Predict the structure of Probable branched-chain-amino-acid aminotransferase.
Amino acid sequence: RTVYVNGDYLPETEAKVSIFDRGFLMADAVYEVTSVLGGKLIDFQGHAARLQRSLGELEMISPVTMDELLEIHHQLIARNDLDEGGIYLQITRGAGPDRDFVWPDPEEVKGGIVLFTFAKKLTAGKSLDEGIKVVSMEDIRWGRRDIKTTQLLYPSFAKMQAKKKGAADAWLVEDGFVTEGSSNNAYIVKDGVIITRQLSTDILHGITRASILKFAAEAQMKVEERPFTIEEAQQADEAFATSATGFSQPVVEIDGVRIGDGKPGPVSRRLREIYMEEMPKTAL
Ligand code: PLP
């Protein structure tokens, strides 16, 4: 693979970053994952806008402009001949002179940036046909989940716990209510109404979530943005999760309780169909 590191396109085996990079030492970094379908970027504008917001909230400065960022994405797609999969992008606060809790002056220390592609079949698979099982886990992440940082140890830990229990993901619960999945936004459907937690600092503002809710409204589906409990989810007609690389992923079991008839539901299937039809039209 050809990857991008701080201005250079290199074979992945030659790509290097400093051991003093704050992304490595302190997870002082933000990231984005954009999906690629038919060699084109799905919702690049949404991801670029969220990236700028994440950077702004942490007083970080991007080492590249958003136009340059789009060009880098296109170069990597071309150089790796990528048809379907995604692009991972990470911007760190850079490498300070020492390991210091105080941020270095952004005028003196430039941010670090790496991007790499990954090929992956996103449009089909067992988990889409059959749905996935999830288990609940307490949400003990920090309180600014709206900023897409690389502090992913707890989500990773939660996913491992889920795996040990024979499930594919964890739905995180805070004060009795589901916040989101380990790397996706969570939804239930009851009597035709789509229910998903409202935006706040408690969850990541999913780019896929925004598109899915827009398509749901356009299709005259009812949406309620409010918190729900695991018990309510277990009694729902269907459940699903959204993310850039998972689109709309059906969930058929929560903490061992089957949702609806235990098969992917019609609402998540319909939303996925609309998403797959509409998003390539605006792909870059
Ligand atoms: N919530 C969390 C915690 C995530 O990590 C992600 C994606 O990585 C999402 C939600 C979904 O966001 P998006 O649709 O922008 O991929």
Summary: The domain at 2-119 is CATH 3.30.470.10 (D-amino Acid Aminotransferase; Chain A, domain 1).
